[in-house]
Amino acid sequence: MVHMWFPVMLLGLYVHKIVKKESYKFTNFLTFHILMHISLISFVALLFVYIVNPVYHPIQIGILTLNLYSIYHSFLTYCIVFIQLVFSQKCCNILLSLMFFMFLRAAFFATVIVILKESTGDILEFDLLETGLLLVNIVTLVSVAARWKWKISRFKDPNINQISASNFVNSTVTIGFCLLFHLLTLFKFSVNFKSTFPLTSDKLISNIYYLPFLWILSSMITHLPPIQAWIKKYDVAEEPGVPELQMTQISVENNLGGVTAEDSSVPYSTLEEINIST
Which parts of the chain span the membrane according to its record (predicted)? Predict the structure, then answer.
């Protein structure tokens, strides 16, 4: 329960925004919002089962499914981050890509990277597919930032809006956290760090206590005034203004047929010729 402070803090911010009727700030994080609720249900169910210790096979199968979800939550998160960086909010592409990644998960279910410390004989394992996808996400994140910078430097539209900016901020927070967690695990392994929990439990701790709630932090960052000002600076999707009308001149005649010295202007697109008799 040492790690409970993080989800409690972010869930407190989440409830605070809802009470203040600012839930609209969560609109661009719908996928991760749903995953958070699934994770909460999984956590509560697993906790209940470990306390009650049921013996019924159907319940055990269900709990095994929830356990697998908790273990592979990071892989699912990496997939969604990559898809959103590439396709933004296009549903069809997201679904097709997610199916492709699930196929990869099934094909490389038990493929791991093994790091052996010869001096002690300790072994540290990393999931090959997850680690590879994490590196791909880092490259994709850098390429998106470089593309935006290149377009801005050449006065082109960088396609920055609320959705793309929210995806970028959330991807940066998520990938940065996961990379830091991996490096921390490697550091503890290299210095023979002794803990109550084995190093193999780091991934499960990350997937249960941290990853499901990071999107709330991303939402807070995205709606900071400096970030919003930056988004509005490059967001060209503005409401259409009133189109300018071409003007032409008309002559005003008096009742004797003479033309006054003054001319008036009216929209050319509405009237071709107007004669006003006084």
Answer: 29-51, 71-87, 94-116, 128-148, 168-187, 207-224
C-alpha 228: how far from chain center: 16
- The pLDDT of residue 278 is 46
Beta-sheet strands, E only, within 39-189: 112-116, 123-127
CA distances (Å), origin 93, targets 80, 164, 165, 203: 11, 16, 19, 29
Q: Which of 10-19, 42-51, 177-186, 268-277 has the lowest mean pLDDT?
A: 268-277
For residue 116, the model assigns a pLDDT of 60
DSSP string, 24-39: GGGGGGHHHHHHHHHH
Look-up: residue for tokens 């695990």? 185
Report domain extents, the chain: 21-234, 246-278
What DSSP element (H or E) covers 70?
Answer: helix 57-71
Tens digits of per-residue pLDDT, 5-31? 898 999 999 999 999 998 889 988 988
> Does the pTM of the predicted model rise above 0.90?
no
pLDDT in tens, 193-217: 777 666 667 787 888 889 999 999 9
Q: What angle (nearest 5°) sits at the alpha carbon of residue 87, between those of residues 84 and 89?
A: 65
Q: 189 and 122 in contact (C-beta within 8 Å)?
A: yes
Neighbours of 80 (CB within 10 A): 21
C-alpha span between 4 and 102 (Å, rounded): 30
Alpha carbon distances (Å) from 266 to 35, 50, 170, 248, 260: 60, 81, 53, 6, 17
Q: Shortest CA distance to 85 belongs to which of 141, 130, 151, 37?
A: 141
User: Largest alpha-carbon pair distance within the chain?
Assistant: 114
Strands of 65-122 (E only): list them.
112-116
